[in-house]
């Protein structure tokens, strides 16, 4: 009946279809399934007859604490295995030496996965779902699965949903409804997959990587495909373990001559976050060289399938030539320096997008103090003409957010800076072209830019089950479209550096951060592509949480960087001058990856605790100041 209801005319994505009885193949008890359905009805706004529900049961008193709920968990979970402290890690938590906060992404060569003696990673004996793109590589993988005694369900790309026999399907990758019809048919047939092999992003891209069409295509085949698939799996209330392995090409930088397509790399966002939000789902990212896989022999194909079938074979894996690699992060010790960073010029001109936000103003302060810079601060909100500033500041009735901005600008000028404020959306080509023209007319040559723009009054995060293209687009706009626009406008300028404020969420994910993590992964990959073709160094820094002087929440003090620490970190990164991706983590990064990304299920409690803190300390960079009047929150890069 549920299936019949879904296919009625007039239904929309806002309709919710729930079944009161489980599928015969579902292992969940009838009572648990019914309670789950009742809970989802209540979440949708339906008010059950609670007196009837509780009839016959005896109510009990539940003691509650008298202090306000802070939504932070501080219970110390017992580790599943004994943990030892490594050298230099005297205690968990924030490292006292700022020089130990820096990391550089790297790759470690490791053995190819072979079939285990106990058969745990055998291809046979499990339900497979394979998303194929019609390539020879995907066809050969399906053939090898079948050769090992398994009959996989195969999904092909098309314009409309279609079922071809018991195990063949065609879906439109842009249609969330098609994914739901797929999982519903699998559920009804008792073939809900245990292993999902996603191959839509492995074919090489031959079009302009920065074109809107290319980005839209790979977002649909990668990022949105995983989002819609996760939502569809949740709607059929699957509770058994599932592993999703996403095979890509041009999404990971392993060798120095690797070519990246930043839009492909965005699939890593949901790959990290899905297991954090859907506890029965594991995800693995596998990057291959598209030019090589067509020549893979049977042994390599079977090894890849064994890798996919292995429960914990590495979250991010790459194959190049005869070698298998896993991604790691190497410490990058940075000592303090008293000298001015070589990337900066005395009285140089620097453009800061998002310059009126919390992070933007802090970085502007550093440039003002260090080199008495000529600063161009852009933001989406309007400020009054400079001739009206004195009158505005004298009135207590004006918008306090704008007042704080004007005071901050005045403070920068007292430090010796010249400040030009421009209202412009970084994703608007005409507006930014006008800003650059006005800057050059006023100050002359631009020496560098800092891209610190972020969304304003929009969703910073959202559970993957609630995401749609509209709220994702708001998150992507400044960090994807805005970055591409800015890069095209300064392409001919002889800059000293380009600095991107990315986020640690691109490494650690975070509850509700799938779209945000993907946007920051794009920034990291884009910086890499620019460094391959330009002499100007592009720096993408994955910042940990920023705090402002207004923050008085002691727990946040332990988990974030103070303003002084943030500027010291910025100074050391500029002094290093290393192009590419730099990761900033105020606590040991590998420990956080073990806890957040590798997702040992015994550490679920710790994940929830750090997720709550991470989401608090990663509010948008413009939330902390007048740009968004959030007040007393920490800043998300």
From TrEMBL:
A biological process from GO? fatty acid biosynthetic process
**Keyword Phosphoprotein listed:** yes
Pfam families tied to this protein: Beta-ketacyl_N, KR
* InterPro entries per the UniProt record, alphabetical: C883_1060-like_KR_N (IPR049490), KR_dom (IPR057326), NAD(P)-bd_dom_sf (IPR036291), PKS_KR (IPR013968), PKS_NRPS_Biosynth_Enz (IPR050091)
Coiled-coil residue windows: none
Q: Which GO terms describe its molecular function?
A: fatty acid synthase activity
Q: What SMART domains would the database entry show?
A: PKS_KR
Tell me which UniProt keywords the record has, alphabetically: Phosphopantetheine, Phosphoprotein
Q: Which N-terminal residues, if any, form the signal peptide?
A: none
> What are the residue boundaries of the Ketoreductase domain, all occurrences included?
348-549
Q: What is this protein called?
A: Ketoreductase domain-containing protein
What lineage does the source organism belong to? unclassified sequences, metagenomes, ecological metagenomes
């Amino acid at each position: 009946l549920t299936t019949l209801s879904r296919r009625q005319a007039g239904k929309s994505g806002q309709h919710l279809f729930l079944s009161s009885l489980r599928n015969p193949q579902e292992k969940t008890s009838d009572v648990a399934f019914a309670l789950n359905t009742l809970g989802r009805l209540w979440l949708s706004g339906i008010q059950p007859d609670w007196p009837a529900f509780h009839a016959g049961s005896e109510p009990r008193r539940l003691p509650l604490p008298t202090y306000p709920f802070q939504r932070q968990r501080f219970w110390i979970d017992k580790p599943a295995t004994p943990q030892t402290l490594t050298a230099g890690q005297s205690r968990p938590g924030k490292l006292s030496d700022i020089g130990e906060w820096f990391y550089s992404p790297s790759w470690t060569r490791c053995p190819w996965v072979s079939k285990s003696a106990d058969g745990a990673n055998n291809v046979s004996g499990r339900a497979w779902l394979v998303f194929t793109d019609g390539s020879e590589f995907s066809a050969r993988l399906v053939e090898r699965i079948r050769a090992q005694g398994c009959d996989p369900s195969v999904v092909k790309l098309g314009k409309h949903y279609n079922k071809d026999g018991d195990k063949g399907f065609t879906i439109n990758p842009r249609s969330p409804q098609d994914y739901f019809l797929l999982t519903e048919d699998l559920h009804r047939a008792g073939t809900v997959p245990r292993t999902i092999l996603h191959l839509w992003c492995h074919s090489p891209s031959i079009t302009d990587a920065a074109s809107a069409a290319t980005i839209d295509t790979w977002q649909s085949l990668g990022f949105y495909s995983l989002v819609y698939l996760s939502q569809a799996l949740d709607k059929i209330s699957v509770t058994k373990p599932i592993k999703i392995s996403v095979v890509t090409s041009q999404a990971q930088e392993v060798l120095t001559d690797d070519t990246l397509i930043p839009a492909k790399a965005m699939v890593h966002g949901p790959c990290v976050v899905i297991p954090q939000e859907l506890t029965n789902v594991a995800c693995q990212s596998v990057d291959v060289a598209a030019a090589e896989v067509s020549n893979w022999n049977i042994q390599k194909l079977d090894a890849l399938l064994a890798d996919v079938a292995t429960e914990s074979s590495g979250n991010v894996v790459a194959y190049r030539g005869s070698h298998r690699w896993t991604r790691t992060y190497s410490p990058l010790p940075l000592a303090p320096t008293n000298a001015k960073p070589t990337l900066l010029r005395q009285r140089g001109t620097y453009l800061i997008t998002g310059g009126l936000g919390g992070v933007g103003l802090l970085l502007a302060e550093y440039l003002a103090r260090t080199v008495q810079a000529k600063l161009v601060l852009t933001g989406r909100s309007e400020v009054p003409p400079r001739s009206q500033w004195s009158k505005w500041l004298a009135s207590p009735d004006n918008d306090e957010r704008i007042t704080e901005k004007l005071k901050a600008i005045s403070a920068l000028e007292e430090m010796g800076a010249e400040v030009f404020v421009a209202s412009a959306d970084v994703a608007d080509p005409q507006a930014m072209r006008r800003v650059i023209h006005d800057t050059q007319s006023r100050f002359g040559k631009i020496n560098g830019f800092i891209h610190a723009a972020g969304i304003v009054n929009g969703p910073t995060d959202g559970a993957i089950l609630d995401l749609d293209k509209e709220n994702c687009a708001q998150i992507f706009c400044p960090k994807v479209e805005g970055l591409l626009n800015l890069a095209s406008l300064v392409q001919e300028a002889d800059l000293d550096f380009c600095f991107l404020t990315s986020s640690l969420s691109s490494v650690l994910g975070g509850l509700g951060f799938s779209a945000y993590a993907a946007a920051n992964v794009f920034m990291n990959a884009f910086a890499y592509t620019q460094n391959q073709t330009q002499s100007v160094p592009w720096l993408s820094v994955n910042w940990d949480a920023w705090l402002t002087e207004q923050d008085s929440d002691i727990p946040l003090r332990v988990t974030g960087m103070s303003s002084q620490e943030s500027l010291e970190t910025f100074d050391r990164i500029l002094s290093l001058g290393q192009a590419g991706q730099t990761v900033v983590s105020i606590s040991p990064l590998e420990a956080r990856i073990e806890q957040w990304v590798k997702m040992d299920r015994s550490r679920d409690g710790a994940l929830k605790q750090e997720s709550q803190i991470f989401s608090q300390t990663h509010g948008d960079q413009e939330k902390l100041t007048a740009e968004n009047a959030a007040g007393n929150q920490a800043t998300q890069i």
